[in-house]
Amino acid sequence: MKLTGAQVIAQAMKNYGVQYVAGVPGRDCLPLLDAFLDGGREIPFIQVMQSRSAVHLADGFHRACGCPMALIGGASGNDMPMPTDTNVMEAHSSAALLIAGRTAADAAQRAAQLPDVLQSAFSVLLASQPKPVQIQVPLDVQCELFDIDMNALHAQQATEPPTADHRLIEKAVALLLSSMRPAIFVGIETQAAEAKDALLKLATRLGAPVVTSASTKGIVPEDHSVSGLSAGRFGTGAGNSILARADMILVLGCKEADWAGVPDVPHAAGSSDKRTLIRVSLEPPQHDQTWQLDIHADVSGALRDMSVAISPQRSRRALSRHESWLATVEELKTRWLQLVAVRSDVLKTPFSAQRPISVLRQVMERDGVVVAGPGTALMAVQQVFRAYQPRTQLTCANSPVVGWAVSAAIGAKLAVPAKDVVCVVGDGDFLQSLPEMAVCVMHGLPLVFVVLNNCGHMSTRFLQQKLLGRHVGSEFNMPNGKPYSPDFSDIARSFGLESWRVEHESQLERALRGALSSGGPALVEILTAREDYASLAGLCGSPGHSGEKSSMRRPEGSAVE
């Protein structure tokens, strides 16, 4: 059969189950766009307002459902996004096919090469540890007509991930059973492996709390008895304290960014003097003295093998051995949740950041998806919004990027249209991607934006004050010093969204319920206190967090407001 290069790409994408293509249309990808309209190759195109938004949209889509999207761009005023945008995807094991069009072909590149190129690309996109893949397809290659064997475009079976050596599994189980205070720390690779059931089975048989990274909340329901909540820079005090006190930590599927955010546990107040670390990951083995045991394997398979190795008799002994430890874990969780509840119940206005998130958790469905932008929004969601299912709390915690959340939430809604999807974002962050509201309206997506408006980048201001004793460029002010903000509810209304502006407690729950039941895109602007970030950071403080270096701090007398 004769097809153009563009039709070959469209057919391969259809065969591999790509559901959407996003980007900004331009000259260098017009043949490809046209191919998505052919009968049997139709793939809906999502036109975004900014090129970088397409990457964030695809990121949210993949994280919500585990399937890759495709993106297009070119050199004619619609360049593909910067590496910093795709780095966010890599840091969270997220994947998308990025197709970059160009005006001229390399002499060696012809359309006949496309089947092999595409097959290689999808082998990465659908791997156990996926990442984004970019291919360059010049304009003349997109237009070139050639004979193609359609069998070459069929989806290939994914390569089986490596399995763990049974001797290492038995050694890991023996170490866990012999410990007094075991804990399991879960990173983003575990979510990609869909390891929830195997993880719960191991944790309950062993009697070990499961603590998640910020990007993996929900892999274990946070009201389950084995949940140790989340840990790390953006995690909870309870999760960090549990890891600080554990004498044995099974580290599952952690990228460097997951583990780097965990406190310096050996030097934490109340920490164990001696700690053993076991790592299971598809990342290459690390020859590091830190890891007593490093298992290079598929996380799901390793978890199943460990569960099988713990017989009912071994499980009874382990649960008895760890009874007092589990009681300590429960005490740490209870103390933390009470602390957060006190902040969440404060009714003064402007609101604390925790208050609207607490009400949002009450009015959303249990399986609803929250997408949190960086800064204050991320802190508040991590602290207050309990997650009960995998892929229901999406953040860019491993690689924070301003402007990520709005487009990621659009992608999440495309991925799970039947679920509530709410984007919680600060006003400074929202201003970076405000035009993407138009995408929601054009596609009729019932997505809710909750804008925590504190008139600036208050997380940055807090960090400047902490390190330098003064701040600059982090507040939005008029020349006379009065806080400045556009009226986001009015702006949203002009885009075609239903909107609410919440200034008082009596408006809060009604506005959130109204937005969730509106049947279309909606926005709730909530006025929050500028001074709230310090209390947010204080709640995240925990054993083991040494904080930022103080050597940069200026004399107190130099602080200015």
Summary tags:
561 residues; alpha/beta; Rossmann fold; 6-stranded parallel sheet; 23 helices; 40% helix; flavin adenine dinucleotide binding
Task: Produce a short descriptive summary.
With 561 residues, the protein is α/β, with parallel strands linked by helices.
Report the total helices.
23
Give, in spatial order, the strands making up the sheet with the most strands.
Answer: 10-9-8-11-12-13
pLDDT < 50 runs, ≥5 residues? 266-272, 542-561
Please give the CATH class of the largest domain: Alpha Beta
- CATH fold-level name of the largest domain: Rossmann fold
In percent terms, what proportion of residues is strand?
15-25%
What's the pLDDT, averaged over the residues? 87
Q: What assembly state would you assign to the polypeptide chains in this entry?
A: single chain
What shape does the CA trace take? globular
Radius of gyration: 25 Å
Describe the structure.
By secondary structure, the protein is an alpha/beta fold. It folds into three domains: 2-153, Rossmann fold; 166-336, Rossmann fold (3-Layer(aba) Sandwich); 345-558, 3-Layer(aba) Sandwich (Rossmann fold). 40% of the residues lie in helices and 16% in strands. The chain contains 23 helices and 19 strands. The strands form four sheets. Strands 10-9-8-11-12-13 form a six-stranded parallel sheet, sandwiched between helices. It has a six-stranded parallel sheet with strand order 15-14-16-17-19-18, with helices on both faces. Strands 3-2-4-5-6 form a five-stranded parallel sheet, with helices on both faces. Helix 4 links the parallel strand 4 (69-73) and strand 5 (96-102). Helix 9 (196-206) packs parallel to helix 12 (299-309) and helix 10 runs antiparallel to helix 14 (323-344). The chain is globular, with a radius of gyration of 25 Å. Residues 266-272 and 542-561 have low confidence and may be disordered.
